[in-house]
């Protein structure tokens, strides 16, 4: 429909509260869908193409697609329903398609999408000119943002120009559905099924518990000057430590070695991702300043060592008390 030849009086139509919230809700739900789709794609890309240089302080459990997948499954049908209700209103009263609220929100969406597209290209150009390495993961993230922003831009520019009909809208919906479904399937293929995610979360909790136990064993040593014989000995002295595996309900294993060495053991479901298995906690008391928590599937013991020189008063004397103020 060409609005240039329309009588201005014909475009003056009462906009109801229903019209306002339908238009506003559609834009809000669209932003949620786009945001979580990109979140899903970025999480998959981070897992499929991890950064291999430098230290990584994450853990495989941080690669979770549960939230974006759940959101897309629920919210995308809501977006389709809102669009369907909006089109029904436009069929009843065609002039509503050119109402102020619909135009304003459509132009706002076009502005945001149009702003993202050159920003995306500028980022690529900057990395190229600056001589920075453009990894496969970085390129795929840039392409993901570009494709999604272009899709939103072209859909809404076609809508405001009146070039969309019932069939073309169905095609757009079908393509969007396939993109979202493909992203979800890709996510499960890269990160595993919901059951796999559950097992990984169990492993993540076990590593976290062992880190907790490790820090408290170090604290015990710093106070006593020797290692505890058992974890129960620490509990008896009011140390709050996790004692049992949350999955099997079996006690964590602690084995004291010679002098200042010991082992912490647990049963793991899956082998950890070595690229992302560095502890998020750096213990300055450990022999190398950083504990690694990479492990295979099955039972595994982490060998720990404390540098006793750190607690030798002849090497590291305690600081003198401050003199009283005169």
Description of the molecule:
The protein is mainly alpha-helical and 326 residues long. It is 55% helix and 6% strand. The protein contains eight helices and three strands; from the N terminus they run H-H-H-H-H-H-H-H-E-E-E. It has helices at residues 8-11, 17-48, 66-92, 100-129, 136-160, 166-191, 194-224, 231-235; strands at residues 253-256, 261-268, 298-305. Strands 1-2-3 form a three-stranded antiparallel β-sheet, with helices on one face. Strand 1 (253-256) and strand 2 form a beta hairpin. Helix 2 (17-48) runs antiparallel to helix 3 (66-92), helix 2 runs parallel beside helix 4 (100-129) and helix 4 (100-129) runs antiparallel to helix 5 (136-160). The longest helix has 32 residues, at 17-48. The protein starts with 7 loop residues before the first helix and ends in a 21-residue tail after the last strand.
């Amino acid at each position: 429909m060409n609005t240039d030849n329309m009588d201005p009086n014909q475009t003056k139509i009462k906009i109801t509260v229903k019209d306002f919230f339908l238009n506003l809700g559609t834009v809000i739900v669209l932003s949620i869908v786009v945001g979580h789709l990109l979140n899903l794609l970025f999480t998959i890309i981070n897992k499929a193409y991890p950064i291999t240089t430098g230290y990584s302080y994450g853990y495989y459990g941080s690669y979770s697609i549960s939230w974006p997948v759940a959101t897309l499954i629920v919210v995308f049908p809501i977006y389709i329903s809102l669009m369907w209700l909006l089109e029904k209103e436009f069929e009843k009263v065609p002039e509503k398609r050119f109402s102020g609220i619909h135009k304003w929100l459509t132009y706002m969406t076009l502005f945001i999408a149009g702003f993202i597209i050159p920003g995306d290209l500028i980022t690529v150009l900057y990395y190229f000119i600056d001589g920075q390495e453009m990894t496969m993961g970085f390129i795929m993230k840039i392409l993901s943002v570009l494709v999604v922003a272009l899709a939103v831009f072209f859909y809404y520019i076609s809508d405001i120009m009146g070039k969309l009909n019932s069939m073309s809208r169905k095609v757009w919906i079908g393509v969007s559905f396939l993109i979202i479904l493909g992203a979800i399937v890709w996510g499960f293929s890269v990160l595993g099924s919901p059951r796999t995610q559950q097992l990984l979360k169990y492993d993540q909790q076990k590593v976290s518990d062992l880190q907790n136990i490790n820090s408290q064993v170090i604290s015990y040593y710093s106070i006593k000057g020797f290692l505890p014989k058992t974890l129960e000995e620490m509990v008896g002295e009011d140390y709050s430590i996790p004692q049992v595996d949350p999955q099997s309900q079996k006690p964590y294993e602690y084995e004291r070695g010679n002098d200042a060495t010991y082992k912490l053991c647990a049963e793991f479901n899956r082998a950890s991702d070595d690229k992302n298995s560095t502890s998020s906690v750096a213990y300055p008391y450990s022999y190398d300043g950083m504990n690694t928590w990479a492990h295979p599937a099955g039972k595994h013991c982490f060998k720990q060592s404390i540098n006793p020189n750190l607690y030798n008063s002849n090497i590291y004397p305690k600081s003198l008390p401050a003199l009283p103020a005169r």
